[in-house]
Amino acid sequence: MSKNDLSISLIPLALRRMNGVKTVSSGAVNRTIPQDEFVAGCTKYQKDAAARKESMPAIVDGLWRCEGFSTTFGKYRLPENTLNDARIPRGAYGITHVGYGAASTEHTLFDTAKLIEIVETKSEPNYRGCAYEGIGSILRIYEPGIFKFMCGVMGLIPRNAPPGPDKTGFFAKFFSAYPAEVQRLITHGYGRLVAFSKLSVYAAIEEAMQLPPAFREPAVQGIAFAFAMMNAVEMPRLLENSALDGAARAPFQNGLVYGVVFCEWFAPGFLATWKPSGKLEERLLARAVEESAKTLKRGYILPFQLENRLT
Q: Fewest CB atoms less than 10 Å from the CB: which of 191, 198, 229, 270?
């Protein structure tokens, strides 16, 4: 396959990244949020997205706003605040936990014991994994370098933010406190931000494939998930051209399919509006439909994992 099949021109890609950052930031209110207000805000973002379920970009917009709102929820904490609240729309549980996990990482300055306590006591039990996934995004943002500098310029983190954990052995010391499944989830979150920090999806995948073997698959899947969100307007083309060469193909396609399932969970009925035109797009969408049916039967979405992964 041609290496241009997944390529996106630099200017549109840059604009989409900036739009993503701005949309997430627009959901933030930078103050404490009473529990009732949090429930109401999440409900509004989910309902607005569901009302436009024929549009993946509109759904992603709602997801990002909900993520930003949840980030505020995690940064400016009240004793009453919890994600284990049945009034929060179940479709919003995944993204709220991601944002909350990321914010809690900053709040605790990567203190593992405090992070685990927050995730275990403030999460809806089936979505703890999504909160752990959010940790990985902050690991990437806090790495010293140009990306961290730009995040400071854009106001995503304080300009004088301290460095994150030691990256030796791919954060070996930091990861050692977590079981293998949580390490997978953290690496997925890290991969999401690799996608945001690289000039092309190919450069992002190349970086992920240089990680220790156990971390390559979740990093590539996280890259694909973020790539799908950023470029939702081109999702049919991305699915149709997703058959990458080598070991990156399966995790990349799993990430794209999971992104579609994640949108369906947030805005039920989204998949029913999609009429595929390509053969591979059709096969991958069929897998997304199957996974969404399993999710509905289960009653919750698996944290960044398909029940029946592509291999």
A: 198
* DSSP string of 236-289, one letter each residue: HHHHHT---SGGGHHHHHHHHHHHHHHHHHHSTTTGGG----SHHHHHHHHHHH
pTM (2 d.p.): 0.94
pLDDT digits (tens, 9 = 90+) for 82-104: 999 999 999 999 999 999 999 99
Helix intervals (H) in 3-145:
10-27, 35-50, 56-75, 93-108, 112-122, 128-141
Encode burial over 83-105: b for 16+ CB neighbours within 10 A, e otherwise. bebeebbbbbbbbbbbbbbbbbb
Give the tens place of pLDDT for each residue, 109-133: 999 999 999 999 999 999 999 999 9
Contact status, residue 247 vs residue 304, Cβ threshold 8 Å: no
Token reading at 305: 């994992």
How far is it, in rounded angstroms, from Cα 249 to Cα 115?
33
